Amino acid sequence: MVSNNKDKEPLEEDIQDSELEEEVKEEVKEMSSMKRERQAGPLPPAPSLNSFPAVEEALRVTDEFCDQYRVLRREVEILQEENNRLRRMLERFLTPIRVVPPSPPKE
């Protein structure tokens, strides 16, 4: 037997879901209108970061850190190249020399 859901009253969950759906639609409308408002007018000029002493100091420290990092990175590259060169030398040094005995004279 097939039940007919049209005769039943909506459940509380159904009402909450439809209310939530309406709230979401309203939020989307508000966000869309705010986006249009932002796009309509020019952006205000951004304040200069150099006008804040704390920002100036942070930029200086960051630049200094980056410079030191570049130097250290280059030193690591140099040490890796030297390490590879020494490994190759050791491999050659430790490779046993194979002496091939002379072949017997042909008769």
Automatic annotation (TrEMBL):
Q: Which residues lie in Acidic residues bias regions?
A: 10-25
Note down the stretches annotated as region Disordered: 1-50
This chain belongs to which protein, by name?
Uncharacterized protein
Residue ranges with Basic and acidic residues bias: 26-39
